[in-house]
Amino acid sequence: MLHGDVLMADLDVDQWRNAQRLLLRSAKGARRIVCLLEKGKVIKCRHTEGKEVAQAPTQVDDLQAAADALYAANRDQVDFVLVAERDEMDEYFAEYQNTWNADEDLDVYVCRSWSLLRGRYKSSIVTAPEPADETLGLQWKLGASHDDVVSAAEAFVSPDSTVVLAVHDNNSLWTSLILRFDKDRKVISIGTADPSLVDIKGDRAAVTDRLVSFANGREGDVKLVVSCTREAAEQFLATKDKAAVVSKLGDDFKVERIG
Questions:
Q1: Contact predicate 27/137, CB 8 Å
Q2: Sign of CA dihedral 215, 221, 226, 228
Q3: Which CATH architecture has domain 2-24+143-257?
Q4: CA-to-CA distance for 110 and 106, rounded, in angstroms?
Q5: Where do the domains of the chain lie?
Q6: Interval 84-93: pLDDT, tens
Q7: Dist. CA 219–CA 250, nearest whole Å
């Protein structure tokens, strides 16, 4: 779905930062305890902010039990706990990087990294309170599986078209995405509004119209527009039943097909 050679151009810093804040969760920015082992012996058990680790183990036989116990003892100080065999971490990253194929979609490559954590490395790289494949790296905050997202694109996105996402907050365009899809419905270009070229202040409908005109001028063939408030976007992403939440949100979350 995400082309291996996707073009990322004309990204406004604020618009792009807010898009990442809305759609992605980074393990790197989380408060965490990292507990590394060598054949069960703890060689490192530290909080990333230097805080004292309560009930730090010296030997670990069951990695998941150790991660659960560490999280329970330190839950007020951490977002998650990682317990892993150091050699297995090295092998995982090497295997993940070596599977890179320039001809495949980027999302397929990323999904393979999660499948490795669910499979071969399930018992040697673990996290708490959620599984490693739902915790480590950059995680999408979509409230939907990868297959669900692909199915939605096939259902709603026209081939060779542009999709516009406009999220508004405080009478301004808080973030935006302009996604160009090819004939196979793969994203080949990602951009945002450029506040130096399009006025992002004012009435939500008027700002969205200006953004669509801007996107048509740059990419052409805008066929789908999603315009919503920031609060509505966050509710939509946090809910698995998308149809129900869209119905509940009403005008705060509008999806419009054009042409």
A1: yes
A2: positive
A3: 2-Layer Sandwich (3.30)
A4: 6
A5: 2-24+143-257, 31-140
A6: 999 999 999 9
A7: 29
